[in-house]
């Protein structure tokens, strides 16, 4: 600690406590209040007139200063030493008229206890002492699953180091015969927590879609793609999110929904309850009937006011908009769109042509000598990107080769020479063109995929 002036205390290497660790900084305390600023630029300012409680808590070999302000919120600061106690106690008593009391946390290791909701947070009590507490302002999502509630926390983007550890999820189990059940606690958290997605009522429900406790802001939707599957029986929608939703430490930037193309629905839309909350351009009706995927398309488009992108000019050997292939061990379909590659279902993959440096075809053999020389009836496509996130699409049927090569060349994407070419194989046709290809990388100036605006498709089918 630096030697402070008589009216100022200053402490080095103090970190903000709570779910984020590692962001150390400087704390200054004077008669008007308390200020803290981390090396990463994050700051906290507390007026002395707002302080209602000050607590001194042992944390390992150091100590934590916990300050509670009006309204029940609190701030925690780690990194103090025992030698700092007396000067802090005297300063708080003289300037803020507060007693610096000692608080001991229960460190027995027991993982069962009681929940005590205190203002804007909860305290987990073990025996006679607290084990930990959770400010509801830190909660980003609250998911109920039978007798278990999962709390997911906001992440700190100003952490001083990429290696800083942060609590991302906490799961609590509620016994059926306990004082508080899971549903009661779930509602309590949603009422108090900073879960922006819980606001607003339901406008419409599609029973054909599996439901989850994730709600997505319309402003988080960046792209919507409508992808007819080659089986001509299903239609998929891929919704791209920014920021993505998160389950634990895993982020999901794309959602894929699949509809039976023949299924129909009579949808009731709660327009009266949502009066004044819908976009002015919205043309939704209180009753909408037709094929489920068409009604869903219209509802999503009207609510988000975003265009829905459909496949463009590409057609496979079987006159389909996609090619069957695999990414790692997952089978799916690759859609060569007008401005990007899309792969569904696992993992949903979106690659803009402007982000591609080069593509390479692997395991390509000639049709004439493939059977004789043991050549493969399938080939692979490797996409190299500027960000280094290369993707390999494997197991494409040999009959799809020429159409895919011609399409990629038409987009001006650079193609590497074929690897593993059979010695003496016939390189006429597409293969010969491919070896000589040196097209420039797409600069992103190509037009968007065709926007779906056909009237008969925008409007639901009539019964």
Keywords:
463 residues; mainly beta; PH-domain like; 4 domains; 8-stranded mixed beta sheet; 7-stranded antiparallel beta sheet; disordered N terminus; disordered C terminus
Polypeptide structure, described:
The protein is mostly beta strands. The chain folds into four domains: 9-102, Pleckstrin-homology domain (PH domain)/Phosphotyrosine-binding domain (PTB) (PH-domain like, Roll); 114-192, Structure-specific recognition protein (SSRP1) (PH-domain like, Roll), CATH 2.30.29.220; 218-309, PH-domain like; 323-365 and 376-411, Pleckstrin-homology domain (PH domain)/Phosphotyrosine-binding domain (PTB) (PH-domain like). The protein has six helices and 27 strands. The chain has helices spanning 85-95, 182-192, 292-304, 401-410, 430-436, 455-458; strands at residues 9-16, 24-30, 33-38, 43-47, 51-59, 62-69, 74-80, 100-102, 114-118, 121-126, 129-135, 139-145, 148-153, 169-173, 221-228, 234-247, 250-260, 264-268, 287-291, 308-309, 323-327, 330-336, 340-344, 349-352, 356-362, 378-385, 391-397. The strands form six sheets. The protein has an eight-stranded mixed beta sheet. Strand 3 (33-38) and strand 4 (43-47) form a beta hairpin. The chain is elongated, with a radius of gyration of 30 Å. Mean pLDDT is 79; it is low at 1-5, 156-163, 196-200, 367-374 and 419-463.
């Amino acid at each position: 600690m630096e030697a402070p002036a008589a009216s100022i205390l200053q402490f080095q290497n103090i970190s903000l406590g709570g779910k984020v660790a590692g962001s150390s900084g400087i704390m200054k305390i004077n008669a008007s209040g308390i200020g803290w600023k981390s090396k990463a630029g994050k700051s906290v300012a507390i007026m002395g007139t707002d302080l209602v409680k000050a607590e001194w808590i042992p944390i390992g070999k150091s100590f934590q200063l916990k300050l509670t302000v009006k309204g029940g919120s609190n701030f925690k600061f780690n990194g103090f030493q025992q030698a700092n106690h007396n000067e802090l106690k005297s300063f708080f008593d003289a300037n803020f008229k507060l007693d610096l009391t000692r608080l001991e946390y229960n460190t027995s290791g027991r993982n069962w206890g009681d929940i005590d909701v205190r203002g804007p947070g909860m305290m987990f009590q073990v025996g006679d002492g607290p084990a930990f507490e959770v400010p509801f302002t830190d909660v980003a999502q609250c998911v109920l699953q039978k007798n278990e509630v999962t709390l997911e926390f906001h992440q700190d983007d100003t952490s001083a180091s990429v290696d800083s550890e942060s609590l991302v999820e906490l799961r609590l189990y509620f016994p059926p015969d306990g004082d508080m059940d899971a549903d009661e606690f779930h509602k309590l958290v949603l009422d108090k927590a900073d879960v922006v997605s819980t606001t607003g009522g339901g406008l419409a429900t599609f029973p054909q879609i599996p439901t989850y406790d994730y709600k997505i802001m319309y402003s988080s939707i960046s792209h919507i793609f409508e992808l007819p599957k080659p089986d001509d029986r299903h239609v998929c929608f891929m919704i791209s999110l920014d920021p993505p939703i998160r389950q634990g430490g895993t982020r999901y930037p794309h959602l894929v929904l699949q509809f039976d193309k023949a299924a129909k629905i009579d949808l009731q839309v709660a327009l009266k309850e949502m009066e004044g909350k819908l976009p002015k351009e919205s043309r939704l009706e209180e009753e909408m009937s037709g094929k489920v995927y068409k009604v869903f398309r219209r509802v999503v488009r009207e609510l988000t006011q975003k265009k829905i992108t459909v496949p463009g000019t590409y057609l496979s050997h079987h006159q389909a908009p996609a090619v069957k292939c695999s990414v790692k061990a997952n089978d799916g379909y690759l859609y060569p769109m007008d401005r990007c590659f899309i792969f569904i279902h696992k993992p949903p993959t979106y690659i803009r042509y402007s982000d591609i440096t080069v593509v390479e075809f692997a395991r390509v053999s000639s049709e004439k000598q493939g059977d004789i020389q043991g050549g493969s009836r399938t080939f692979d496509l490797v996409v190299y990107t500027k960000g280094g996130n290369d993707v390999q699409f494997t197991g494409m049927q040999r009959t799809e080769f020429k159409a895919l090569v011609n399409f990629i060349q038409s987009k001006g994407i650079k193609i590497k020479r074929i690897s593993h070419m059979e010695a003496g194989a016939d390189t006429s046709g597409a293969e010969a063109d491919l070896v000589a290809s040196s097209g420039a990388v797409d600069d992103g100036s190509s037009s968007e995929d065709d926007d779906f605006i056909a009237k008969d498709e925008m409007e639901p089918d009539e019964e």
